[in-house]
Design goal:
Number of domains: 1
Mean pLDDT: 81
Number of strands: 7
Strand content: 15-25%
Order of helices and strands: HHHEHHEEHEHEEE
Largest sheet: 7 strands, mixed
Low-confidence stretches: 1-18, 82-96
Radius of gyration: 17 Å
Distance between the termini: 21 Å
Structural class: alpha+beta
Length: 210
């Protein structure tokens, strides 16, 4: 995959014309479908048993209709490509970012080698109200290295004992994400909650942070 400043800018402007919530809505829909599908094939599984890798793979598969998709994409590779004529970040910024991102979306063009990075998505099982922060901070650093033209989404499967607990979780997730100084225009959405016989609420929640 290659990067050019012109291509990244054109892609960003084109995506903005399509509506900033379109990708977020697609991730939410795919995440919700992934949960439902896993429960269907697993029989008597509990919603919380849904594996993270299943959520990631099903979301990636849904988004592959409109993008080239890389799963478990190395951050160092992403930053290396971004720094080729695009990033003004010092080399130490590249060295500081390690590991892999769950899903990297590249534009779907005739030659995959000419595709530029459109978005990064991290998917988790939400065990507390701050578990998305580290991923969000890393995505913001990558986006900055790419000239702020890469979208970033963090989200995952949530589970709450009541409607009140669910609302409180969403509120705290939003507050925690704002602690890392994400954009004032950050969007956070949740799929309609599924309520089981015990009154437990579950579903998929995601935030577009850049």
């Amino acid at each position: 995959m290659r990067f050019s400043r012109r291509t990244l800018q054109e892609n960003w402007e084109r995506d903005m014309d399509l509506g900033k919530e379109e990708l977020l809505d697609a991730v939410l829909s795919a995440g919700n479908e992934a949960i439902a599908r896993y429960l269907e094939i697993a029989g008597d599984a509990h919603v919380w048993d849904t594996p993270e890798f299943w959520l990631q793979s099903e979301i990636a598969n849904a988004l592959a209709k409109a993008h080239f998709v890389r799963l478990e994409h190395r951050v160092s590779d992403t930053l290396h490509y971004a720094s080729d004529g695009v990033s003004d970040s010092p080399e130490r910024e590249v060295e500081r970012q390690t590991g892999r991102v769950d899903i990297a979306l590249y534009e779907k063009v005739p030659n995959p080698n000419d595709a530029s990075l459109n978005a990064i998505i991290e998917v988790k099982k939400i065990v507390d109200d701050w578990c998305l922060n580290a991923d969000a901070a890393r995505i913001l650093a990558i986006s900055k290295s790419c000239g702020d033209h890469v979208r970033g989404i963090v989200g995952g499967l949530y589970f709450a004992k009541s409607q009140d607990q669910m609302n409180a979780l969403f509120h705290e997730i939003t507050n925690r994400l704002r602690e890392i100084q994400v954009s004032p225009s950050m969007l956070i959405k949740a799929s309609p909650a599924t309520v089981d016989a015990r009154g437990f609420h579950s579903g998929f929640v995601a935030a577009q942070i850049c």
